[in-house]
Amino acid sequence: MGYLLLAGAIAAEVGATTAMKYSEGFSRLWPSLLTLAGYVVSFSLLAQTLRTLSIGTAYAIWAGVGTAAIAAIGILFMGEGLTAAKAAGIALIIVGVVVLNLGGAH
């Protein structure tokens, strides 16, 4: 159940961060409200996740997957370029999360 809650926390965080892009510096009401709601849901689910998963594992997955997902959304849907440095950074995030899950954050 912990990983299911964590997946929801990641999805809410990614949605909130995407909405933040469309809020234009919090000058547009609905994207701003979606940003706020998404982060409230994300942190609430992350807090519930910490009942069953270690903080190191949960936070590493939440932050790493969220960061990689936002980078991918930027590249695929928002016209951001994919450079070798950006691709390497995303790969390092994924490798770091995998390493923590294999034994570094138990």
UniProtKB/TrEMBL annotation:
- Where does it mainly reside? membrane
**Topology term for the membrane:** Multi-pass membrane protein
User: Where is the protein situated, by its record's location annotation?
Assistant: Cell membrane
- Bilayer-spanning residue ranges: 29-47, 59-78, 84-103
Q: Which InterPro entries match?
A: EmrE-like, Small_drug/metabolite_transptr, Small_multidrug_res
The molecular function terms of the Gene Ontology recorded here are:
transmembrane transporter activity
Family per similarity comment:
Belongs to the drug/metabolite transporter (DMT) superfamily. Small multidrug resistance (SMR) (TC 2.A.7.1) family.
What is the recorded name of this protein? Small multidrug resistance pump
Species this protein is from: Streptomyces prasinopilosus
